[in-house]
Fold:
Amino acid sequence: MDVRQRLSANLRRLRSEHGWSQEDYADRAGIHRTYVSDLERGARNPTIMMVEKLAVPFALTASDLIA
Structure:
């Protein structure tokens, strides 16, 4: 599994565990809902700065999010 696939799987899993819709999570992360959908499908290759932003709502570090 490559890093983009791990990120996608982790985002879906964590978002589901928190009971958040894609829109809820997007609001918390300060990004657009369609971007969340693209990330979860592996259709986007986010920058490391974006990975850091994606980790904040889960109270994780960027490295934890992609581990």
